[in-house]
UniProtKB/TrEMBL annotation:
It comes from the Bacteria. SUPFAM superfamilies: Restriction endonuclease-like (SSF52980). It comes from Allochromatium warmingii. This is Restriction endonuclease.
Amino acid sequence: MSIEIDRLFQATHQDIQETSRVVRELSNSFGNWYHHLEFVEEMVRPAVLRLFRARGLDVHYVMRDLVVIDDTGQEDMEIDLMVTNAIHAIAVECKSRLTIEDVQEHLSRLARFKRCYPRFADYRLMGAVAAMVLPDEVARYAYRQGLFVLAQSGEAILIRNDARFNPKEW
């Protein structure tokens, strides 16, 4: 009987250790994901005024993490970075690695943006995506959808859209 109890104890102890390891990994993954997103936003934020001004948009303000709470108290929409002047607003989605699904979600946000943010109803709204890792097919897709495409190049952030690019307005 004692040998059976020892075996059960050992098995239970191993299960607890494995469960603890998995929980630690999940916690680290979430923390790493959050810190990656903060890192991307902090890389992009100081560059956007310079980049959009170089494109002829005389923007002056950068706001971070605009959040709309709906009537039920739930988050309805979040914009990572908003770059504005008196007539233009550029909603920027930041990701460490951008996917086509991320671009589609941002396009959906842009379609609802003025309804959710009536303060910007009279602005000429444009969209942008920014990423540290940006596959070429995703960059092309975002470009074709009328979004500015910002990506890391060495130690800098650049707009990858060419001079022929005409941004879509929502």
